[in-house]
């Protein structure tokens, strides 16, 4: 899905928002303005099977819930959660978006050329690429996935068994549909939409 070059995240992508408080130690949580009752209410408002393996993706138009598949892609799910908890994805752009196909993000440079610097061994599985599927982008080499991923707008059966599916949108797909589209065959986007924040729902 993308060329892979080992690059470090630049300073412009390290802008943090309200989500920076999510990584505070438990001892510091009590210092936050939000009450424990309100925090508990927010966490339980997302109906997911396993809060430790579910993500809240905040987009400009609304909240998206992604439930992950740790049984099918354990190493990818583990790495995604590490990156999410490090706030790696906050502020990153949907640099490649093709109408009727998918929206791709996760490059720290917003060009499709960067990653976190850690390649992952492919975990191809039987989950199909359908509307709402979340899957890893990679180069021609199977074991080249890093931090970039894409969300399918429609069924994409020709990708089955060739890319690692690690999750599925279970709520908020209507907001994914509103991500700004790109142009040309490669779908590169001018002034692209970005991820406001990503969080593990268990951490909310």
CATH superfamily: Cyclophilin-like
- Stretches where pLDDT is under 50 for at least 5 consecutive residues are 3-32
The largest pleated sheet is described as:
8 strands, antiparallel
Separation of termini?
Answer: 32 Å
Backbone structural class: alpha+beta
Q: Assess the beta-strand content as a share of residues.
A: 15-25%
Radius of gyration: 16 Å
At the first level of CATH, the class is Mainly Beta
Strand order in the sheet with the most strands? 3-4-6-5-7-2-1-8
Shape: globular
Assembly state here? single chain
**Mean of residue pLDDT?**
86
Determine the number of helices (DSSP H or I, runs of at least 4 residues): 4
Helix content: 10-25%
SSE sequence, one letter per element: HHEEHEEEEEHE
Number of E-state strands: 8
Which second-level CATH architecture applies? Beta Barrel
Q: Please, how many domains?
A: 1
By CATH, the topology is Cyclophilin
């Amino acid at each position: 899905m993308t060329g892979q070059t080992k690059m470090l995240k630049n300073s412009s992508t390290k802008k943090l928002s309200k989500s920076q408080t999510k990584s505070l130690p438990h001892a510091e949580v009590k210092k936050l303005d939000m009450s424990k009752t309100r925090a508990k209410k927010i966490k339980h408002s997302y109906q997911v099977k396993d809060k430790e393996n579910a993500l809240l993706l905040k987009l400009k138009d609304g909240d998206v819930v992604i439930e992950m598949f740790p049984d099918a892609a354990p190493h990818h799910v583990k790495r995604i959660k590490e990156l999410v908890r490090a706030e790696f994805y906050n502020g990153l752009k949907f640099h490649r978006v093709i109408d009727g196909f998918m929206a791709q993000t996760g490059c720290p440079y917003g060009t499709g050329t960067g990653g976190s610097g850690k390649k992952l061994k492919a975990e191809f599985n039987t989950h199909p690429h359908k509307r709402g599927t979340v899957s890893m982008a990679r180069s021609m080499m199977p074991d080249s996935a890093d931090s970039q991923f894409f969300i399918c707008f429609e069924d994409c059966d020709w990708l089955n068994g060739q890319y690692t599916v690690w999750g599925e949108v279970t709520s908020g797909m209507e907001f994914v549909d509103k991500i700004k589209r790109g142009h040309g065959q490669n779908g590169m986007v001018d002034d692209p939409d970005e991820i406001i924040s990503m969080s593990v729902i268990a951490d909310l």
